[in-house]
Amino acid sequence: QVQLVQSGAEVKKPGASVRVSCKVSGYTLRELSMHWVRQAPGKGLEWMGGFDPEDGKIVYAQKFQGRVTMTEDTSTDTAYMELTSLRSEDTAVYYCTCHLGAGLLIWFESWGQGTLVTVSS
Amino acid sequence: EIVMTQSPATLSVSPGQRATLSCRASQSVSSNLAWYQQKPGQAPRLLIYYASTRATGIPARFSGSGSGTDFTLTISSLQSEDFAIYYCQQYNNWPPWTFGQGTKVEIK
User: Fold this and answer.
1) Residue A119 predicted with pLDDT over 80
2) Closest alpha carbon to B101 in A50, A54, A39
3) Tens digits of residue pLDDT in B30-50
4) Distance from CA of B34 to the nearest CA of A (A)
5) How far is B103 from chain A (nearest CA, A)?
6) Residue A120: DSSP 8-state
7) What is the pLDDT of residues A64-102, one digit of tens each?
8) Please, which residues have CB within 8 angstroms of residue A59's CB and are 6 or more apart in sequence?
């Protein structure tokens, strides 16, 4: 059973950056395809980016290109998502989520508890 | 990008009754569709993948069907803990991985 534990809530001012961490246990990061999904208040789920199993790289949603960076530290089995140039519309709960295994078809089996990021002046 | 459309937006059902939720893809996703349940203040939970395979620990009252562009999630006899929002997600054509906008199942 994969467990994902995320860092705590953040409050940021517009224009700032935020980094959210996601600690993996039960498996190693190398065994997972890690992705990030966000959910604005009262809204649905929005995929932000994650591991592309076809080329082995991290791919981002076009909407976030240039503002988001997802990294992985395999020595600590921790994934990170950094979002820059924050604006009020980025206020949301950010989830890490993963698929176990190396296949090309990825559904999201395990989810972190979510990290609320509030952007407010 | 494949657009996923769920209907209805809200479904009012009495406990013990059947609930039928729909999800339509803008183009074929074969059987590469998952369903998730989300309760207030909680992370989503995987219910179904490959359109009809229940995830580990998911009760048999949840069933999925469909292929191509039209999919259905059926909850055969609603329990109190089943009142939640349900999302479908396609993983056939990516990036991006895309979700429907959700169906809220509420108590009638």
Assistant:
1) yes
2) A39
3) 999 999 999 999 999 999 999
4) 7
5) 10
6) -
7) 999 999 999 999 999 999 999 999 999 999 999 999 987
8) A49, A50, A51, A52, B95
